[in-house]
Predict the structure.
Amino acid sequence: MKKRLLALLMALAMTLALAACGSTETETATAEDAADTAAEDATEEENGETAEPEETETEPEAAEPEETEDSGEESGAETVVTRIGSLKGPTSIGLVEMMSWDSADYSYTMETDASALLTEMVSGELDIALIPANAAAIWNTKIEGGVTCINVNTLGVLYVISADDSISSIEDLAGRTIYLPGQGTSPDYVLQYLLAQHDMSLDDVTVEYQSEATEVIAALTADPEGVGLLPQPSVTAALNKLEGFSIVLDLTEEWGKVSDTDLITGVTVVRTAFLEEYPEAVAQFLADHLTSTTAANEDVSATAQRMVDLGIMDSVAVAETAIPYCNVTCVTGQDMKDMVSAYLQVLYDLEPSSVGGELPGDAFYYLG
């Protein structure tokens, strides 16, 4: 009996030992598998790889927006189209190269009368305008927020033409009938200043104001003994039509004899509100205008053709002859301020109303 009991106890002990061994082997294998898996995961992370996540039910992903054409806005930046106005004359010559560019940055308007450009500036239809220097000072008082002068675009372009080549000085104009475009315009004030510097006045001559250059030419056709005061390129056009007429006085030269200032025809102004909102656009315009002006002076033939294409002149040959006399330029910064302020001072001393009754302050000039 004792032997049987002892045998049973020994058999039970062996069974329990075998079970324990099987359990330990299983746990060991499971632990080793987990360690291997962790090691593999760590290796994959180091190599920039990750295990694919198990698929689970999720909300459907939002569709990718379709690509559209560039609207001109990047990172919230607004596209600016600078609207430029100029007169159909010498102040537009420095723009014609720019007008030939296929650029969405600019739009252009040309008028025959500065008052039309003023109306468009007042209404906000234009941002930049190329106009007579004295008109710029007047506009500064008429446009809400004022305007800022950013460059000189044209120097002296005024000439006296006559069929009488005995005229060789300002004094020789005494007793003559002078036809010129526009009362209260640059030609009018320049004539008055030069007469005053020679102890003369409008009482010593007969002035017949015409609305535009073509009317001056028509008046001289009817009165060949008359004298014309015109800007280029209208001077060259007139000489092609008026037999026996020639340039007898260069008023830029006459101005230089009696004044230490520069005779200025045209300047460029920008609405001050536009300058404050879009200073980069104004800086870009100045850079482009310099490029365009340089091209106008260097490639006269191409410029002449563009002037005809734009309706500024009727003849390429006439335009090509006139351009070198137009003194097209692009003067900026302190040089511009010195030139314009000195010129406006001369006009103010002659007639305060010629500059709007008061001289503009330092804020009127953009020094860049």
About this structure: The radius of gyration is 41 Å.
